Amino acid sequence: MSAEQSQSATRLFLVSAHNSPVLAPDWLEVPADPNDLAAGVWPATAHRAGDGQLSLGGIPAGDLAARFGTPVLVLDEADARARASEAHRAFTSAAEAHGTTARVYYAGKAFLSVEIARWMLEAGLNVDVCSGGELEVALAAGVPAAQIGFHGNNKSVPELVRAVEAGVGSIIVDSDIEIERLGEITARLGAVQNVLVRVRSGVHADTHDFLATAHEDQKFGFSLADGEAAALRIREIDGLNLLGLHCHIGSQIFGVDGFRESAQRVLEVHQRLLEGGDVPLLNLGGGFGIAYTRADDATPIADLASDIVAVVAEACFERGIALPTLAFEPGRAVIGPAGVTLYEVGTTKTVELDEGARTYISVDGGMSDNARPALYGAQYSARLASREGAGEPALSRVVGIHCESGDIVVDHEYLPDDVGPGDLLAVPVTGAYCAALSSNYNHTPRPPIIAVERGAARLLVRGETIDDLLARDIAYTTAAADREVAGEGEE
Hints:
This protein has 491 residues and is α/β, with parallel strands linked by helices.
């Protein structure tokens, strides 16, 4: 081998080790530019400004970090509102094309605050909640109770009483016990409550097991046979009004095949229930998938709506029954892509392995503000936000501050090899199930949540402080009170 060939082989080896294709998953490609922003992953207003900084809602990332600190969850208000309006338009238009109507609920469990609920209401969406806390947030936002759906497999008696007294539009019942409880509550209050019966269609969505909610061995809902019996029991209770059936097959689902098969099965029960009275509503849930990385191929919401409604309409036609009012519950698809979390890099280290090298980039957040990678093995993207990197793409893993080896923010990503302490990193598609699942693990305060639009930023949810955390510790607050009394006595 000549000297020139040897040098060339050495360069190829170094590039291979640097990019570590053996360590990288098959779906992750080495980018031509490790500073690019993948289409379909970032909010509509995200772009590189003239100085190379990431700009969100017209504001440089550095300015946001300087004002609000890091970590910080940034929500692109225009993007979120546009997606909410698009979801409403897509499902209502698809329903109208087949001679029926649609109700679109924002699934508040993805992320809910008073202002977010108002955005959804202004976009024409109803709001779906699954706890007493979420119910109170929706009501505080001014969402009419009649436009709220209440989920949950173990709603407490006080929660059910509050929902009935408030006039919640529908309660999705999940067990025989809940039906009897609700019957007793409505009798005591002299009220009539609309309900849907949550059923498991037996369709196992092509997603993580913890996100699939229609197979039999899990906590939600009734089997189809038991759901039919539950619906018949509801019709015997004066204070309950059966609206119909509800089925949610899972989350982060691409395509319509699962929805098609599930709807066919649920309609069998729907048709039999029609023999005993009206069944005006069929709720097919949500779970519509979005792109977290450039490898994800998410189905546009308009296509999903058109295809799902067409499938249900065809099935109803074949059975010779009227197409009911349809309901859908997008959450992640509305708020997820609008969110970007900014972190500051603290340390970096390169780990040399037999298969190649991986750079570990530690940031000032982690599983306390985004538990999804630890819970589901969820994959995310990342980009340098405070500047454009000048280095070559290096296989990197973005990790958090917590005392857990599984504290991973972004498992696999190519980032410039000159990322270092003080740089800002941005992780997109964090609007859904990040703040909602956040915790105080390792006594870490939860970060602020802000909205950006047209060059202006405002606080939606303030960040916590160490003082906030200590204020809940009785021994600390008692000692502080004792010190204050002692100090007053000395004076």
